[in-house]
Amino acid sequence: MFLWNMSLETGIAEVDLGRKRMLGAMADFFQGMDDPGLNQHTLAAHTGAIFNAMKAAFATEDAFLKTHDGEASEKHQMTHAALSAAFIDLCRKLIPKIRTHKQAQQCCLEIYQLVDDALFHHVTKEVAGYRELGRTPVKKVG
């Protein structure tokens, strides 16, 4: 489902690396949904991995945007903050309530929906913009 492919490449090595890692964590989460041993702890580990990868990828993107497109950088940081907050809020709401395997599966479905609809969509819709920025020289301050 969340597999890295050439259509997702921005041509910016550090941005692509962060996004690859985030998609890898998302793919691990997706594969873990069918794990018969899925429970509160394994789900927390998978969502923690997504969050850590997302945080690193977003920080790299934000740093890149500051040097290449300062005007769009602040708005983009706000988008990243909103996505991160939505993910954290949903995980904090759902994961502590898990007591059974079935509850873990239900939580996975809700978290999956956010991961697919928001995070994955965010990554895929930005590719062209990053490709264009990667071809432009760095804006000099002053």
**What Rg do the Cα atoms give?**
16 Å
User: What is the H/E order?
Assistant: HHHHH
Strand proportion, as a percent range, falls in under 5%
Cα-to-Cα separation, first versus last residue = 45 Å
Give the mean pLDDT.
90
Structural class by SSE content: mainly alpha
Strand count, sense and barrel status of the largest sheet are:
none
Question: Given the structure, what is the number of helices?
Answer: 5
Number of strands: 0
Q: Which segments are poorly predicted (pLDDT under 50) over 5 or more consecutive residues?
A: none
Question: Strands, helices and their partners?
Answer:
Elements: H1 13-32, H2 40-68, H3 70-94, H4 101-125, H5 127-135
Helix pairs in contact: 1-2, 1-4, 2-3, 3-4
Describe this structure in words.
This protein is an all-alpha fold. The chain is 76% helix and 0% strand. The protein contains 5 helices and no strands. It has helices at residues 13-32, 40-68, 70-94, 101-125, 127-135. The longest helix has 29 residues, at 40-68. The mean pLDDT is 90.
Primary descriptors:
single chain; 142 residues; mainly alpha; 76% helix
Brief digest:
By secondary structure, the chain is mainly alpha-helical. Helix content is 76%, strand content 0%.
